[in-house]
Amino acid sequence: MTASPKKLGSIPRQPGIYQFFDEKNKLLYIGKAKNLHSRVRSYFQRTADLSPAKQQMVVAIKHIKYTIVNNETEALLLEKTLIRKEQPPYNIDLRDDKYWLYIKIDRSGTWPYVTTTRRFEPANKVRFFGPFISGLAVRRISKLLRRVFPFRLPPDYKTELPKDTIWPPTYFGHYLTGTESEIKEQYEQILHEILDFLNGNTAAVIKEIKAKMKGAVTEQNYELAKVYRDQIQAVEALKVRQDVVINQNVDEDFISLYKDSGKSFINLFKVRRGKL
Fold first, then answer.
1. Which of 56, 114, 155, 229 is the most buried (most CB within 10 A)?
2. pTM of the predicted protein model
3. How far apart are CA 77 and CA 218, in angstroms?
């Protein structure tokens, strides 16, 4: 939908994104809003506290295009996508490659590693989880994951560990031990648990750690049992709140297809254990 600066009253009070154009139909700026009507009007009020660049932009605005979405999150996602694609001159913060943040599991080397990255570069034996809207949240998740699972960091990660040590310490100060084949077997199990967790299957992770804790108690290794107990508590703390869309423990994919004017659009929604 479109509007002019002289007819701002026609803009709805719904969440969405707005785009400003000059008289030559050149895109100047893209923004998001919880309330499109209030946000767009704020640019044209005499009391608006705008930077000199934004003041210059407002003078050049001749028409406005807006898109209504369901909520603020959708507005944020659409705003970032369009800014990266269109590169408007008055959008400075979101124009570079520092965009989405992913959790990356790289199995291409001898010893797989886990890290966070903003570069989505698909490759064999590389798994990405994301993109995530909140960079702070994903860094916290990654940091807490390291407390639970002694995974390896990228090869270029700076560490003060001895050169012959291939594992970073876990939060309880231990390293994986045994022969190389035993260490690899242990590490594969750890990667399996990490993948389970990132796929939202925290129940399976907790079940596996509880089994280890029971085994440690049977062997009267109470120090190790305490480690596993702390791991279970950490996994519980790591649970990310998600929207429950089905009151059943089901795994389903929902696909929609829309065709218009020679273009086709496909949406895929994944529901895992009743959660979107």
1. 114
2. 0.47
3. 50
